[in-house]
Structure formats: structure tokens, C-alpha cells
Amino acid sequence: MAFCTKCGRKLEEGEICHCQDNAVNQSTANNGFDPYSVKSEKSGVTQTENDVVINIDTDKIKENISGVKDNIVGALDKIGAGSSEEDGTDVYERGKLIVPECISANDGEVPIKQYNFAKLRTRFMFAKAEGRLQVTNKRVLFRATGRSIMGRTTLHEEFEINEIAGVEIRNKYDFSFLSLLGGLLLTALCGAIGVGAAILAMRANSSGAISFFEILAVIYNLLVFGLCVAATYIFAKRKSQEKFYSVRQILLAIGAGACGMYIDGSRYADGLPSEFLLFSTIFMGVCCLVNVLLISFVPDLVCLIKTKGAIPGIEIQREAQMGLLSFLFKGQLDERTGFYEVCPWKDTQIAIKELGTMIDDIQTMGDAAIEKWKN
Q1: Those residues with Cβ within 8 angstroms of residue 21's Cβ, 6 or more apart along the chain or in another chain
Q2: Which residue of 34, 254, 327, 351 has the fewest CB atoms within a 10 Å radius of its CB?
Q3: Are 315 and 158 a contacting pair, CB within 8 Å?
């Protein structure tokens, strides 16, 4: 004899009680709601389970996840994590307009023209920055951004266009002791490389006959003469004399060191043209000295945008050095740019030609000068 564990009804052998099914049907008929058949308004799917009912709203979950993501990103921005400005991915702001991409524009302000104006550097601090000069219908702005061993550097100066009284720009060359020291070290290093190559060649040729290395030394000297002439033309045309001087110094120092070592330590049984090597050594040695002096004179750009009042205007010039090693005692000053070298850039000559006239036109013609200079 068996009984139902739910309702207590007596059951025959093998009979199954349907009291639960009747209760569910009765509840549905009375209330019009089936707890085991729930329809999701978002997904439109009806889920029917006898034991557990789970209704998942996928759209609501996506909204919550998106909100959490926005909160995390906002928190990271507040502490500076993940910011391209802090991790150095765009430290030089290349290809950007000062207004409005780097700083906000004033009401009715229109960018007119921007120049890649100056490159600033302090080599013993490994500091380098790229300076851009921009003119709008309301302001004149100079902004230089870059990096040093201590982190990011930013120099920003601006004045209202109506306050500008005049522009003074000087593009010249000045002596740099640091460049002289670097040229001498480069000459000594490359000369030692040439001496070492000559010693190895002479040890490989113990018979005293003309070796392949000695013939190669002659060919190298001839190539150096040709390359120096060609490089002089190429670098002068591209206005990259400073890089050319370093390349030429490397070639000349290696050749002078190798030829000098051959003349001092070798004996030529078969009449190697030692006169040519002697001439090459003297010629390259003199060229090395002259080239070191040329390396010592670096470009020096000075740009003073003066105001009508007593307030100093935009000053783009290198820091003054009181002594030979003054940087060890003074450090970097903020009187001007904070950099010990200010060199011209690719648009410097264009800016020299246009800047003063543009500012005068904007002051006298107003917004009518915008289209003239934008075109």
C-alpha cells in the first residue's frame, strides 16, 4: 500500500499522483500567471523549467558593463594612467595646430598660419624640444614640447595680437665649447679605429710585400676625397651642415689614423707609393683640425617678439652662459627658454619673411587679413 507524500492520497500499485499538476493548473486558471513559464520582454524567449526559473535580460547586462567600463576609464584619467600625454606617445605634438588642438581657442578665434620655427636642445641634459610659432586673428603663440632625462618638457608663451609692437629675428652661428669637446673626442675615437685597422693589416702582412689591406687603404683615401666633395654639395643643399661635419670628421679621422700608422710602422720592399700616403696623412690631418673648428660653431636662433608696454614679449633664445662650465653651477635657468641651444628649423626663413607683415596686416585690417594669409 502506497500513499502520496504531498497530498496523502492512497495510491494503487504503480499509480502516480498528479496533485501537483492539478495545483499548478488551478493556480493558473485563478491568477492568469504561470510561474514556470516566464517570457522575457527583451529577448522574446519563453523559458519553462520545473525546478528553477532564470530570466536574463542581456541588454541590461550590457548597459551595466558599459557603465563600469566608463567609471574605470574616468578613474584612470584622474590619476594619469593610460594617458598618451604622460606616457610619451605624442610628446612632440607633431602635426598638431597649437590652436585648437593643443590649447582651446578663444571665442571667434581663427588660426591663420603656423610655422615649424625652432629646435631647442641641451645636450648634457639630453633635452630636446620642437618649437612651433602660430599666428591667429587674436594671438601670437609659441609652444615647444619635448623630453629630457627628467621627463617631459613644455614651453608655452602667448600674447594678444594687438599688444605686439615689433619682431626681431637673428639667425647666426656661435661658438660652442661642448661641440668642440665632442669633435675632439670623435676625432680621437675614429683615429684610434684607423690606427687599429692599420696595425691588424701590417701584422697580417709579415712578408713586407704590398698587401690587399695597403691597396685598400689607398682606395679608401681616394674614396674619402670623393665622398667629402659629394657630401659637401648634398648636405649644403639640404641645409644639414652640422650632420655633414660629423660624418666628414669620422671619415677623415679614420683615414688619417690609418695612413699615419702605415708611414710610421711599415717598410715597403716593393716601392709602395708612400709619398701618396704621406700626402694623405698631412691633408687629412689638416682637414680634421679645420673640421673640428667648423663643428664648434653651431646655429644660434634669436627671436624677440616685443610688446607695446613694459612687459617683455616672447623671447626665443638660448640661455646665457657666464663661464666655460657654468652649467655645473647654475643649472638651467628659466629667464628665456631653459635650453642652451636654439637652432632654426625648416620654416624659420619663411617666418622671417612673413611674420612682421602678417602681424601688421591683422592689426590694421582685422579679420579681412585672415583669408589673405590663410591662402
Answers
A1: none
A2: 34
A3: no
